[in-house]
């Protein structure tokens, strides 16, 4: 890829200095990032593309994911031109007023923080561990965790009580609450087809295609979706912005009781035998974590699964193991 698109090639100045110059010019001469309420992913893409086009008319910005970190948006995407593409990460305020090429941690040298070793949490044990993974259907880190844990569930089968549940607020709008209602109903009424559907959905997020792949009975599904929509006021809460969490995210209360009981605050959250547990997101890491919750480990715990962490978001491939989440 050419070095004109955001000057992303690693030069002596580096991407940070180059982008700082570009965005300062944009703020003071163009006012591209306007002040207002929180902006959508589409608006974020449009604003970055507008700024990029001023410097490299033949380049395009393709957003991969946008998550909240420390009160601001972390935006990851690809800058593409005729010679290739390169991934970049930038940060914006939630209203789109400012964009930063990087985050520089600030430390108070006069009051140093003493790092204390954190004890490894002990996983409560049982004969049949209860394993709950709380996610948002369109959170890239939630889908990453789902891709990592499904092989473990398939290996251990009924030796664990496994379920996927949903965080009680949705960060990705109507498409997310609709998908979560759909998955709740498939789990409740067509459980034997759920993993066929979910494995397909994790490939590209195309729910309509995956309903056919998994042979879901759509009439039964639609009746269930209407029923839980009325029961949990899913559409009503989506349309009434006065009820949104922090004024930004629609409530999704199907699994609200578990969210409250376990203190779920983001996607993904792993709960084993009633306790939040941290785990790596590769199948091998999830297997080790879950197997530590058995009173007596079954022979399946001796199996070796992939140690590769799945990519975040939809699709295949490998990703980085981290504790990043949508929250």
Structure description:
- The protein is an alpha+beta fold.
- It has 3 domains: 14-100, Roll (Nuclear Transport Factor 2, Chain: A), CATH 3.10.450; 122-168 and 255-327, Glutaredoxin, CATH 3.40.30.10; 173-243, no CATH class.
- Helices cover 37% and strands 16% of the residues.
- The protein has 10 helices and 10 strands.
- The strands form 3 sheets. Strands 1-2-3-4 form a 4-stranded antiparallel sheet, covered by helices on one side.
- A hairpin with a 2-residue loop joins strand 9 and strand 10.
- Helix 3 crosses helix 10 and helix 5 runs antiparallel to helix 6 (207-213).
- The two termini are 34 Å apart.
- The model is unreliable at 1-35 and 108-120 (pLDDT under 50).
Q: Which helices and strands, and how do they pair?
A:
Blueprint (H helix, E strand, L loop, with lengths): L13 H17 L10 H15 L4 E10 L2 E10 L2 E9 L6 E2 L29 E6 L4 H17 L4 E6 L2 E2 L2 H17 L4 H11 L2 H7 L4 H15 L1 H6 L10 E2 L4 H7 L6 E4 L2 E2 L6 H9 L36
Parallel strand pairs: 5-6
Antiparallel strand pairs: 1-2, 2-3, 3-4, 5-9, 7-8, 9-10
Helix pairs in contact: 3-10, 4-7, 5-6
Offer a concise description of the structure.
This protein is an alpha+beta fold and 327 residues long. The protein has 3 domains: 14-100, Nuclear Transport Factor 2, Chain: A, CATH 3.10.450; 122-168 and 255-327, Glutaredoxin, CATH 3.40.30.10; 173-243, no CATH class.
